[in-house]
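Bench notes, afternoon.
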Amino acid sequence: MTRPLTSAVPAHGPGTPLMSSVGLGWRVARVELYKDPPQLPDFVAPASPDLSLVMVTCGRYTIESRQERTWRRAEYGPGSVGVNAPGRGSVFRWRSTDQLKLESLHLRFQAAAVHQALDSFGLAHRDAERLDALSLEDVYVSTSLSALRRALEAGAAGLYADMIAESLLTHLVYTTLADSAKRERIEADANLLGCKELEIVFDYMRDRLGHEVRLDELAALVNISKFHFLRTFRKATGLTPHRYLTRLRLQHAAGLLRNSRLSVQQVAMTCGYTSASRFAAAFRQEYGVAPASYRR
């Protein structure tokens, strides 16, 4: 991966918002599409606790960014990505002679999500400052952002968008911050819960979607402590066991709503929810609509 320039553009600048993920039930990141002006004089971007990514989706820019007294420049075109690290303010400006419209996609991770990703790799929270990049050349990042744009345009539910955003954040932290020695330790540790062990756990979860599943039960399946199981499961899947099981239950519920005549109450009971109201709240949070509306 090409080493990025430092000092990134902010994820919330002077452009005109066109679309937003607000209201779609996306929890991991907020995504917005902006129309940008062709010329921008010096713009002060204040420091933010959030991690922001910006990708050009249409047009070409020459962008300059300054922190303290140093100016840096990068040429942006469709697919170009900048990253603004938490706690990093800057001054930036751009100009464009492109006759096409100028548009950019803005993604923002809240501090809690960033800290969770850092914790998963045993990294200090202050290391997030090193994510800053005026120009990041990473095909995985740009492809993931393009997928989120399509999801935004389609009004996709949170289940799909959140998985992309979680994977993107994990990839960015791993490739940018984890040095080779740390990567070897992470990979070796993750391998303690390999594909065979994970499949045993997944099968057990799928067989007990309608029942209570305790952490110590899952850990016992692979003969490790529940604390070690929690840590390695999260490293292997990007989710806690509880969150993974919840997603399995809601995916099963969505299938029943589409393909069966069970009532919402019956679907809730089948998927381990003793209360239809709790099931409806969880389903709405995951899919952005109530179970009855999803069925229609």
